[in-house]
Write a structure and sequence with these properties.
Layout lengths: L1 E5 L5 E5 L6 H12 L6 E5 L2 E2 L2 H10 L2 E8 L44 H18 L8
Parallel strand pairs: 1-5
Antiparallel strand pairs: 1-2, 3-4, 3-5
């Protein structure tokens, strides 16, 4: 069976689907196709939002399913769980995970960045290069 998703721009994306398709996997496929964050995707079926049960029943009852996608505006708050502060404008973007944080959670160590090992390796290499440039070498006679 085929699932047709209409984007806000009017473009229609079609997916092959089986009865095991979940709402999360559908949103993931749309996110990959449209390059939109999963939390910004809102789906409606017959002008109503729907859940897993309604999705599976509509997939089993018909050959084609038409779904309308709407994008939610990005939320203007820190991504760290439980924090409601606004993200810092310039310094709030984590360069390792790409998410927006407030001034309190902006450092990779404070928001438990999943790419913290990249941060450590980058700092290690930077310090290693700096130390090698300052290395004293004796003159050979």
């Amino acid at each position: 069976m085929i699932v047709h998703v209409q984007t806000p721009s009017g473009k229609i994306i079609s997916f092959e689907a089986d009865s095991s398709l979940t709402l999360a996997s559908l949103k993931e496929k749309i996110s990959e196709a449209e390059r939109v964050s999963i939390d910004q995707i809102s789906l409606t079926l017959n002008d109503k939002s729907f859940d897993e049960k309604e999705l599976s029943s509509s997939l089993s009852s018909s050959e084609n399913v038409n779904i309308v996608m709407k994008t939610k505006p990005p939320q203007n708050k820190c991504v760290y769980s439980g924090c409601t502060k606004r993200p810092a404008l310039i310094i709030g973007d984590c360069r390792f995970c790409g998410k927006k944080y407030c001034s309190q959670h902006r450092l990779p160590e404070t928001h438990n960045c999943h790419n913290i090992s990249d941060c450590r390796n980058q700092s290690y290499e930077k310090n290693k290069e700096k130390l090698m440039r300052e290395k004293c070498v004796g003159i050979k006679v």
